[in-house]
Amino acid sequence: MLETNATLPEKLEKLVNIIDIVSMDIKLPEHFQTEKEWQTVYKNELKSIEIMEKHRQKYYIKIVVSQKTPPQLIRDIMEDLKTRTSHDTEIIIQPQSPIEKWTNLDNLFTISEIVGENYPVSIIPQIHKYLGVA
Asked: How far apart are CA 20 and CA 58, in angstroms?
C-alpha cells in the first residue's frame, strides 16, 4: 500500500506496477495560501488519478473537509472526477480534527450526500490525530 498526497504523478507512474493499492488525497483550497498553489496541486492530483485508472490499479481518495468547506466546491470536484474515475472508486471524507470542535455536523452530512450521489462514500476520522502520531 502506498499512502500519498498524489502530487507527484510522474513518480507514481514508476511505482504503479509494484504496489497493490494507493490511498491518495485531494486537498482543498482551504489548505493553501493561494488559489494558484491549490490549482497546481489539484491538477497533479487529477493526473495521479488518471494514472491509476489507466493502469487499472486499486485506489481510493481521501478528502479532508472542515465546517466551512463549501458544498459547491465538492460538487465541482465530483464533476471533475466523473470524467476520470470509475463509478466504484471509494471516496473517504475525513472531517478535520478534532471533530469535537465541530459545532454543527450538517455540512459534513451534506458533503457526504453530494459524494454519495456518484461514488461509494465513507466518513472516517483522521485516525493519526486520535493516536497522536501527527
From this structure: 7
- What's the pLDDT tens digit per position in 79-134? 999 999 998 999 999 998 887 888 889 999 999 999 999 999 999 987 766 666 66
Integer Cα distance of 70 and 39 in angstroms: 16
The per-residue pLDDT for 133 is 67
Q: Which of 110, 26, 30, 31 is nearest to 60 (CA)?
A: 26
Q: The cell 485516525 sits on which residue? A: 127
HEC profile for the chain?
A: CEEECCCCHHHHHHHCCCCCEEEEECCCHHHCCCHHHHHHHHHHHHHHHHHHHHCCCEEEEEEEECCCCCHHHHHHHHHHHHCCCCCCCEEEEEECCCHHHCCCCHHHHHHHHHHHCCCCEEECCCHHHHHCCC
- CA angle in degrees (0–180, nearest 5) for 21-25-26: 135
Q: Model-level pTM greater than 0.85?
A: yes
| Sequence-separated (6 or more) residues with CB below 8 Å from residue 1 | 19, 20, 21, 22, 23
